[in-house]
Amino acid sequence: FTAIGVASVFVVGAAAVLLLRQPNQAAMKDEAAKIVLAKEGSVASSVLLSGTVTAQNEQYVYYDASKGDLDEVSVSVGDKVSEGQALVKYSSTEAQAAYDAASRAVAKADRHINELNEARNTAATTPSLPQAGVEGATDQTQSSTLATASIDSQISDARDIRADAVAQLEKAQAQLDAATVLSTVEGTVVEVNRNVSKSPTGNSQVLVHIVSNDNLQVKGELSEYNLANLSVGQEVTFTSKVYPDKTWNGKISYISNYPKNSSEASSSLAGSNTGSKYPYTVDVTSEIGDLKQGFSVSVEVKSMSKALLVPITSIVMEEDKNYVWILDENQKAKKVEVGLGNADAENQEITSGLTDGAKVISNPTASLQEGKEVKTDEATN
Protein backbone atom coordinates (compact mmCIF):
# COMPACT_ATOMS: atom_id res chain seq x y z
CA PHE A 1 0.00 0.00 0.00
CA THR A 2 2.87 2.38 0.77
CA ALA A 3 4.41 1.75 -2.64
CA ILE A 4 1.08 2.35 -4.37
CA GLY A 5 0.65 5.61 -2.45
CA VAL A 6 4.08 6.86 -3.42
CA ALA A 7 3.45 5.95 -7.07
CA SER A 8 0.14 7.78 -6.97
CA VAL A 9 1.77 10.90 -5.58
CA PHE A 10 4.44 10.77 -8.35
CA VAL A 11 1.84 10.45 -11.11
CA VAL A 12 -0.23 13.29 -9.71
CA GLY A 13 2.87 15.48 -9.38
CA ALA A 14 3.97 14.77 -12.94
CA ALA A 15 0.50 15.57 -14.24
CA ALA A 16 0.54 18.85 -12.34
CA VAL A 17 3.89 19.80 -13.91
CA LEU A 18 2.54 19.08 -17.40
CA LEU A 19 -0.56 21.15 -16.69
CA LEU A 20 1.59 24.02 -15.46
CA ARG A 21 3.72 23.90 -18.63
CA GLN A 22 0.78 23.92 -21.03
CA PRO A 23 0.13 27.69 -20.78
CA ASN A 24 3.80 28.44 -21.58
CA GLN A 25 3.66 26.34 -24.74
CA ALA A 26 0.50 28.12 -25.76
CA ALA A 27 2.20 31.44 -25.14
CA MET A 28 5.04 30.33 -27.40
CA LYS A 29 2.56 29.62 -30.14
CA ASP A 30 1.05 33.05 -29.67
CA GLU A 31 4.41 34.86 -29.52
CA ALA A 32 3.94 38.33 -30.97
CA ALA A 33 5.52 38.97 -34.34
CA LYS A 34 8.26 41.57 -34.66
CA ILE A 35 7.63 43.94 -37.51
CA VAL A 36 10.16 46.05 -39.40
CA LEU A 37 9.76 48.23 -42.46
CA ALA A 38 11.56 47.34 -45.65
CA LYS A 39 13.70 50.37 -46.47
CA GLU A 40 16.48 51.43 -48.78
CA GLY A 41 20.07 51.04 -47.64
CA SER A 42 23.42 49.38 -48.30
CA VAL A 43 24.87 46.12 -47.12
CA ALA A 44 28.49 45.22 -46.70
CA SER A 45 29.87 43.61 -49.82
CA SER A 46 30.87 40.00 -49.74
CA VAL A 47 34.38 41.14 -50.74
CA LEU A 48 36.84 40.45 -47.93
CA LEU A 49 40.46 41.60 -48.19
CA SER A 50 43.55 41.40 -46.03
CA GLY A 51 46.09 44.15 -45.55
CA THR A 52 48.76 45.66 -43.35
CA VAL A 53 48.65 48.97 -41.50
CA THR A 54 51.37 51.32 -42.74
CA ALA A 55 52.31 54.97 -42.30
CA GLN A 56 50.80 57.36 -44.82
CA ASN A 57 53.59 59.87 -44.13
CA GLU A 58 57.11 58.57 -43.76
CA GLN A 59 60.61 59.59 -44.81
CA TYR A 60 63.66 57.56 -45.75
CA VAL A 61 67.06 59.30 -45.73
CA TYR A 62 69.60 57.39 -47.82
CA TYR A 63 73.37 57.84 -47.74
CA ASP A 64 74.49 60.09 -50.62
CA ALA A 65 78.23 60.05 -51.33
CA SER A 66 77.89 62.93 -53.79
CA LYS A 67 77.24 65.28 -50.86
CA GLY A 68 80.58 64.50 -49.28
CA ASP A 69 81.69 62.57 -46.23
CA LEU A 70 79.07 61.80 -43.60
CA ASP A 71 79.66 64.19 -40.73
CA GLU A 72 76.79 63.59 -38.27
CA VAL A 73 73.48 61.79 -37.75
CA SER A 74 71.63 64.11 -35.41
CA VAL A 75 68.81 61.81 -34.21
CA SER A 76 68.38 58.45 -32.52
CA VAL A 77 65.75 55.72 -32.60
CA GLY A 78 62.66 56.79 -30.65
CA ASP A 79 63.24 60.54 -31.04
CA LYS A 80 60.23 62.69 -31.85
CA VAL A 81 61.09 65.04 -34.70
CA SER A 82 59.31 68.01 -36.23
CA GLU A 83 59.13 69.05 -39.86
CA GLY A 84 62.28 70.97 -40.86
CA GLN A 85 64.47 69.49 -38.11
CA ALA A 86 68.06 68.56 -39.07
CA LEU A 87 68.60 64.81 -39.38
CA VAL A 88 71.90 64.24 -41.20
CA LYS A 89 74.89 66.48 -41.92
CA TYR A 90 77.66 65.96 -44.49
CA SER A 91 81.10 67.56 -44.45
CA SER A 92 80.66 70.91 -46.25
CA THR A 93 84.27 72.15 -46.63
CA GLU A 94 84.20 72.39 -50.43
CA ALA A 95 80.67 73.78 -50.51
CA GLN A 96 81.61 76.39 -47.92
CA ALA A 97 84.70 77.41 -49.90
CA ALA A 98 82.64 77.79 -53.08
CA TYR A 99 80.09 79.86 -51.20
CA ASP A 100 82.74 82.15 -49.72
CA ALA A 101 84.35 82.69 -53.15
CA ALA A 102 81.02 83.51 -54.77
CA SER A 103 80.15 85.86 -51.92
CA ARG A 104 83.42 87.75 -52.39
CA ALA A 105 82.78 87.99 -56.14
CA VAL A 106 79.36 89.54 -55.54
CA ALA A 107 80.83 92.03 -53.07
CA LYS A 108 83.63 92.96 -55.52
CA ALA A 109 81.10 93.50 -58.31
CA ASP A 110 79.02 95.73 -56.03
CA ARG A 111 82.07 97.88 -55.18
CA HIS A 112 82.99 98.25 -58.84
CA ILE A 113 79.43 99.27 -59.76
CA ASN A 114 79.40 101.85 -56.97
CA GLU A 115 82.72 103.30 -58.18
CA LEU A 116 81.41 103.54 -61.74
CA ASN A 117 78.22 105.24 -60.56
CA GLU A 118 80.24 107.85 -58.68
CA ALA A 119 82.46 108.42 -61.73
CA ARG A 120 79.38 108.86 -63.90
CA ASN A 121 77.90 111.43 -61.52
CA THR A 122 81.17 113.34 -61.53
CA ALA A 123 81.43 113.24 -65.31
CA ALA A 124 77.88 114.49 -65.67
CA THR A 125 78.35 117.47 -63.33
CA THR A 126 81.97 118.55 -64.04
CA PRO A 127 82.50 120.74 -67.11
CA SER A 128 85.19 119.49 -69.48
CA LEU A 129 87.87 121.70 -70.97
CA PRO A 130 87.20 122.96 -74.50
CA GLN A 131 88.79 120.83 -77.19
CA ALA A 132 90.77 122.29 -80.12
CA GLY A 133 88.49 123.42 -82.91
CA VAL A 134 85.34 123.31 -80.69
CA GLU A 135 83.89 126.44 -79.20
CA GLY A 136 81.75 127.31 -76.21
CA ALA A 137 79.17 125.34 -74.24
CA THR A 138 78.43 122.93 -77.10
CA ASP A 139 81.96 121.57 -76.81
CA GLN A 140 81.55 120.97 -73.03
CA THR A 141 78.19 119.23 -73.43
CA GLN A 142 79.43 116.86 -76.10
CA SER A 143 82.47 115.95 -74.03
CA SER A 144 80.35 115.22 -70.93
CA THR A 145 77.96 113.08 -72.94
CA LEU A 146 80.79 110.99 -74.35
CA ALA A 147 82.24 110.43 -70.85
CA THR A 148 78.94 109.33 -69.28
CA ALA A 149 78.17 107.02 -72.20
CA SER A 150 81.50 105.26 -71.73
CA ILE A 151 80.86 104.83 -68.01
CA ASP A 152 77.29 103.54 -68.65
CA SER A 153 78.78 100.82 -70.85
CA GLN A 154 81.16 99.82 -68.09
CA ILE A 155 78.32 99.75 -65.55
CA SER A 156 76.33 97.43 -67.80
CA ASP A 157 79.29 95.05 -68.04
CA ALA A 158 79.81 95.20 -64.28
CA ARG A 159 76.17 94.31 -63.69
CA ASP A 160 76.52 91.25 -65.95
CA ILE A 161 79.56 90.18 -63.94
CA ARG A 162 77.57 90.63 -60.72
CA ALA A 163 74.68 88.54 -62.06
CA ASP A 164 77.10 85.69 -62.81
CA ALA A 165 78.53 85.96 -59.30
CA VAL A 166 75.04 85.86 -57.78
CA ALA A 167 74.23 82.71 -59.76
CA GLN A 168 77.38 81.07 -58.41
CA LEU A 169 76.46 82.20 -54.91
CA GLU A 170 72.98 80.64 -55.19
CA LYS A 171 74.49 77.40 -56.47
CA ALA A 172 76.95 77.31 -53.59
CA GLN A 173 74.12 78.05 -51.13
CA ALA A 174 72.13 75.11 -52.53
CA GLN A 175 75.14 72.85 -52.03
CA LEU A 176 75.50 74.06 -48.47
CA ASP A 177 71.79 73.45 -47.82
CA ALA A 178 72.01 69.95 -49.30
CA ALA A 179 74.78 69.12 -46.88
CA THR A 180 72.15 69.16 -44.12
CA VAL A 181 69.17 66.83 -44.64
CA LEU A 182 65.97 68.04 -42.95
CA SER A 183 62.89 66.14 -41.85
CA THR A 184 59.94 66.48 -44.23
CA VAL A 185 57.42 64.94 -41.79
CA GLU A 186 56.51 65.18 -38.14
CA GLY A 187 56.88 61.78 -36.55
CA THR A 188 59.05 59.25 -34.75
CA VAL A 189 62.50 57.95 -35.71
CA VAL A 190 62.24 54.17 -36.12
CA GLU A 191 65.62 53.40 -37.73
CA VAL A 192 69.13 54.91 -37.59
CA ASN A 193 72.27 53.56 -39.27
CA ARG A 194 75.49 55.43 -38.56
CA ASN A 195 77.86 52.78 -39.90
CA VAL A 196 77.20 52.96 -43.62
CA SER A 197 79.55 51.66 -46.26
CA LYS A 198 81.57 54.30 -48.12
CA SER A 199 81.56 52.16 -51.27
CA PRO A 200 79.54 53.15 -54.38
CA THR A 201 76.82 50.72 -53.27
CA GLY A 202 76.44 52.61 -50.02
CA ASN A 203 73.94 55.00 -51.61
CA SER A 204 71.22 52.37 -51.16
CA GLN A 205 71.66 52.25 -47.39
CA VAL A 206 69.13 53.89 -45.08
CA LEU A 207 70.57 56.42 -42.65
CA VAL A 208 67.31 57.50 -40.99
CA HIS A 209 63.70 56.30 -41.25
CA ILE A 210 60.88 58.43 -39.81
CA VAL A 211 57.19 57.52 -39.66
CA SER A 212 54.12 59.46 -38.59
CA ASN A 213 51.42 57.78 -36.49
CA ASP A 214 48.86 60.51 -37.17
CA ASN A 215 48.03 59.37 -40.70
CA LEU A 216 47.79 55.63 -41.22
CA GLN A 217 46.85 53.57 -44.25
CA VAL A 218 46.05 49.96 -44.96
CA LYS A 219 47.90 48.48 -47.92
CA GLY A 220 47.43 45.09 -49.50
CA GLU A 221 46.66 43.24 -52.70
CA LEU A 222 43.37 42.15 -54.21
CA SER A 223 42.78 39.48 -56.81
CA GLU A 224 41.72 40.09 -60.36
CA TYR A 225 38.37 38.49 -59.50
CA ASN A 226 37.62 41.31 -57.02
CA LEU A 227 38.90 44.07 -59.28
CA ALA A 228 35.60 44.57 -61.11
CA ASN A 229 33.59 44.85 -57.87
CA LEU A 230 35.71 47.53 -56.18
CA SER A 231 36.39 51.18 -56.91
CA VAL A 232 38.15 54.17 -55.39
CA GLY A 233 35.90 55.94 -52.89
CA GLN A 234 34.18 52.85 -51.48
CA GLU A 235 33.93 52.76 -47.69
CA VAL A 236 35.33 49.85 -45.72
CA THR A 237 35.52 48.56 -42.17
CA PHE A 238 38.43 46.55 -40.84
CA THR A 239 39.44 44.68 -37.70
CA SER A 240 42.63 43.39 -36.14
CA LYS A 241 43.16 40.13 -34.27
CA VAL A 242 45.03 42.16 -31.65
CA TYR A 243 41.77 43.96 -30.75
CA PRO A 244 38.98 41.71 -32.08
CA ASP A 245 36.25 43.75 -30.37
CA LYS A 246 37.25 47.01 -32.12
CA THR A 247 36.41 48.21 -35.62
CA TRP A 248 37.94 50.98 -37.72
CA ASN A 249 36.58 52.76 -40.77
CA GLY A 250 38.34 53.71 -43.99
CA LYS A 251 37.93 54.55 -47.64
CA ILE A 252 39.64 53.03 -50.68
CA SER A 253 41.99 55.72 -52.03
CA TYR A 254 43.96 53.74 -54.63
CA ILE A 255 43.60 50.62 -56.77
CA SER A 256 46.39 49.87 -59.21
CA ASN A 257 45.49 49.31 -62.85
CA TYR A 258 48.50 47.02 -63.20
CA PRO A 259 49.39 43.76 -61.44
CA LYS A 260 52.07 43.73 -58.81
CA ASN A 261 54.71 42.57 -61.28
CA SER A 262 54.93 41.31 -64.81
CA SER A 263 55.71 37.74 -63.75
CA GLU A 264 52.34 37.47 -61.98
CA ALA A 265 50.59 38.81 -65.06
CA SER A 266 52.41 36.24 -67.19
CA SER A 267 51.41 33.40 -64.88
CA SER A 268 47.81 34.57 -65.07
CA LEU A 269 47.91 34.56 -68.87
CA ALA A 270 49.44 31.10 -68.74
CA GLY A 271 46.36 29.78 -66.92
CA SER A 272 47.33 30.14 -63.27
CA ASN A 273 44.43 29.58 -60.87
CA THR A 274 45.56 32.24 -58.44
CA GLY A 275 45.20 35.14 -60.86
CA SER A 276 47.05 38.44 -60.76
CA LYS A 277 47.34 40.60 -57.65
CA TYR A 278 46.66 44.34 -57.73
CA PRO A 279 47.93 46.68 -54.98
CA TYR A 280 45.32 48.76 -53.16
CA THR A 281 45.38 51.42 -50.44
CA VAL A 282 42.78 52.36 -47.82
CA ASP A 283 42.97 55.66 -45.94
CA VAL A 284 41.92 55.37 -42.29
CA THR A 285 39.05 57.80 -41.66
CA SER A 286 38.17 56.96 -38.05
CA GLU A 287 40.10 57.65 -34.87
CA ILE A 288 43.41 55.80 -34.80
CA GLY A 289 43.03 54.68 -31.19
CA ASP A 290 45.01 51.50 -30.51
CA LEU A 291 45.76 50.87 -34.17
CA LYS A 292 49.49 50.49 -34.80
CA GLN A 293 51.73 50.22 -37.83
CA GLY A 294 52.43 46.66 -38.83
CA PHE A 295 49.04 45.28 -37.70
CA SER A 296 47.53 42.70 -40.04
CA VAL A 297 43.86 43.51 -40.61
CA SER A 298 40.80 41.99 -42.26
CA VAL A 299 39.02 44.47 -44.54
CA GLU A 300 35.32 44.29 -45.41
CA VAL A 301 34.22 46.46 -48.33
CA LYS A 302 30.88 48.24 -48.11
CA SER A 303 28.70 48.30 -51.18
CA MET A 304 28.07 51.72 -52.72
CA SER A 305 24.80 50.63 -54.31
CA LYS A 306 21.44 51.17 -52.63
CA ALA A 307 18.77 48.48 -52.39
CA LEU A 308 15.67 47.53 -50.42
CA LEU A 309 16.79 45.88 -47.17
CA VAL A 310 15.09 43.48 -44.74
CA PRO A 311 16.52 41.58 -41.76
CA ILE A 312 18.28 38.44 -42.87
CA THR A 313 16.22 36.53 -40.26
CA SER A 314 13.03 37.31 -42.19
CA ILE A 315 14.00 35.20 -45.22
CA VAL A 316 12.25 31.80 -45.52
CA MET A 317 13.40 29.26 -48.10
CA GLU A 318 10.99 26.70 -49.49
CA GLU A 319 11.73 24.42 -52.45
CA ASP A 320 14.61 26.57 -53.72
CA LYS A 321 12.49 29.72 -53.56
CA ASN A 322 12.82 32.64 -51.15
CA TYR A 323 9.92 34.24 -49.31
CA VAL A 324 9.19 36.83 -46.64
CA TRP A 325 6.07 37.18 -44.53
CA ILE A 326 4.47 40.61 -44.50
CA LEU A 327 1.38 42.24 -43.04
CA ASP A 328 -1.24 43.41 -45.50
CA GLU A 329 -3.48 46.44 -44.96
CA ASN A 330 -5.76 44.32 -42.72
CA GLN A 331 -2.90 43.22 -40.43
CA LYS A 332 -3.07 39.71 -41.86
CA ALA A 333 -0.13 37.50 -42.80
CA LYS A 334 0.89 37.25 -46.43
CA LYS A 335 3.73 35.23 -47.88
CA VAL A 336 5.56 36.95 -50.73
CA GLU A 337 8.20 35.46 -53.04
CA VAL A 338 11.24 37.72 -53.32
CA GLY A 339 14.46 37.97 -55.27
CA LEU A 340 17.68 38.26 -53.27
CA GLY A 341 20.80 40.34 -53.79
CA ASN A 342 23.86 40.71 -51.55
CA ALA A 343 23.71 40.23 -47.79
CA ASP A 344 25.81 40.91 -44.73
CA ALA A 345 25.56 39.64 -41.17
CA GLU A 346 22.32 41.55 -40.49
CA ASN A 347 20.59 42.65 -43.68
CA GLN A 348 19.48 41.12 -46.97
CA GLU A 349 19.02 42.98 -50.25
CA ILE A 350 15.65 42.43 -51.92
CA THR A 351 15.72 42.79 -55.70
CA SER A 352 12.06 42.00 -56.42
CA GLY A 353 8.75 41.21 -54.74
CA LEU A 354 8.65 43.98 -52.10
CA THR A 355 7.99 47.70 -52.07
CA ASP A 356 9.58 50.35 -49.89
CA GLY A 357 7.81 50.56 -46.53
CA ALA A 358 6.36 47.04 -46.57
CA LYS A 359 5.72 45.64 -43.07
CA VAL A 360 8.00 42.60 -42.81
CA ILE A 361 7.85 39.99 -40.04
CA SER A 362 11.44 39.65 -38.92
CA ASN A 363 10.85 36.49 -36.80
CA PRO A 364 8.57 34.27 -38.90
CA THR A 365 7.51 30.95 -37.34
CA ALA A 366 6.06 27.74 -38.73
CA SER A 367 2.67 28.65 -37.21
CA LEU A 368 2.14 31.58 -39.60
CA GLN A 369 -0.76 31.03 -41.99
CA GLU A 370 -1.76 32.91 -45.11
CA GLY A 371 -4.63 35.32 -44.41
CA LYS A 372 -4.55 34.92 -40.62
CA GLU A 373 -4.43 37.96 -38.39
CA VAL A 374 -1.03 38.48 -36.77
CA LYS A 375 -0.47 39.68 -33.24
CA THR A 376 2.35 42.25 -32.85
CA ASP A 377 3.85 43.63 -29.67
CA GLU A 378 5.83 46.57 -30.99
CA ALA A 379 5.57 49.46 -33.42
CA THR A 380 7.20 49.22 -36.80
CA ASN A 381 10.46 51.10 -37.38
Note the main attributes of this structure.
381 residues; alpha+beta; 5 helices; 22 strands
What does this structure look like?
With 381 residues, the chain is α+β, with helices and mostly antiparallel strands. Helices cover 30% and strands 33% of the residues. It is built from 5 helices and 22 strands. It has helices at residues 2-29, 93-125, 136-178, 224-227, 262-269, and strands at residues 35-37, 39-41, 44-55, 58-62, 70-73, 80-81, 86-90, 180-182, 187-192, 206-211, 216-223, 235-240, 243-255, 277-284, 296-302, 307-311, 316-318, 321-327, 333-337, 339-343, 347-352, 359-361. The strands form 5 sheets. Strands 3-11-14-13-12-15 form a 6-stranded antiparallel barrel. Strands 1, 17, 18, 19 and 22 form a 5-stranded antiparallel sheet that branches. The chain has a 4-stranded antiparallel sheet with strand order 2-16-21-20, with no helix packed on it. Strand 20 and strand 21 form a beta hairpin. Helix 2 (93-125) runs antiparallel to helix 3 (136-178). The two termini are 64 Å apart. The relative contact order is 0.19. Residues 1-29 and 262-272 have low confidence and may be disordered.
The largest sheet is:
6 strands, antiparallel, barrel
Q: Can you tell me the overall shape?
A: elongated
Give the structural class: alpha+beta
Helix content: 25-40%
Order of helices and strands: HEEEEEEEHHEEEEHEEHEEEEEEEEE
Poorly predicted regions are 1-29, 262-272
Strand order of the largest sheet: 3-11-14-13-12-15
Radius of gyration: 42 Å
What is the average per-residue confidence, as pLDDT, rounded to a whole number?
A: 81
- Quaternary structure of the protein: single chain
The number of helical runs is: 5
Amount of beta strand: 25-35%
Strand elements, count: 22
Span from first to last CA? 64 Å
